[in-house]
Write a structure and sequence with these properties.
By secondary structure, the chain is of the alpha+beta class. It has two domains: 5-87, F0F1 ATP synthase delta/epsilon subunit, N-terminal (ATP Synthase, domain 1); 90-132. 29% of the residues lie in helices and 46% in strands. Strands 1, 2, 3, 4, 5, 6, 7 and 8 form an eight-stranded mixed beta sheet that branches. A hairpin with a 2-residue loop joins strand 7 and strand 8. It is elongated, with a radius of gyration of 16 Å. The chain starts with a strand and ends with a helix.
């Protein structure tokens, strides 16, 4: 059996993944980076995007938003502020969320509301962009 990478992905809501994989591509703040078995230790802040888990020829894509990735001799741990399995995203619901966020931004009448609406819009646009790739 070829070497495997131990990978764990945890968000505040739940543990999304914990197991052995061939490779993981992480959307790091300095750009995407791949992690394979025996990777050198590294820590990175995560930027919003699709985290790709590759195992035995299949790819699972998970939208991550915020958090950090830690590569150690034991494997890769990702602690994400938010993580959504892209296979579970309802496209019609996402389009409605996008429209609602755009409306909220347009209707915002204070700096705080504009900032909150912009964060919500950026999040939904990030999920949509992750789906498109």
């Amino acid at each position: 059996m070829a070497d495997k990478l131990h990978f764990a992905l945890v968000s505040p809501e739940r543990e999304l993944f914990n197991g052995e994989v061939d490779h993981v591509v992480v959307p790091g703040s300095e750009g995407e980076f791949g992690v394979s078995p025996n990777h050198a230790p590294v820590m990175s802040v995560i930027k919003p995007g699709a985290l790709k888990v590759i195992n035995e020829g299949t790819e699972r894509r998970i939208f991550v938003n915020g958090g950090f990735a830690d590569v150690t001799p034991e494997g890769l741990s990702v602690l994400a502020e938010e993580a959504i399995d892209l296979a579970d995203v309802d496209l019609a619901q996402l389009e409605q969320q996008l429209k609602n966020a755009q409306d909220d931004l347009r209707d915002a009448n204070t700096d705080d509301r504009r900032a909150a609406a912009q964060r919500a819009l950026s999040r939904v646009e990030g999920i949509k962009a992750a789906l498109a790739r």
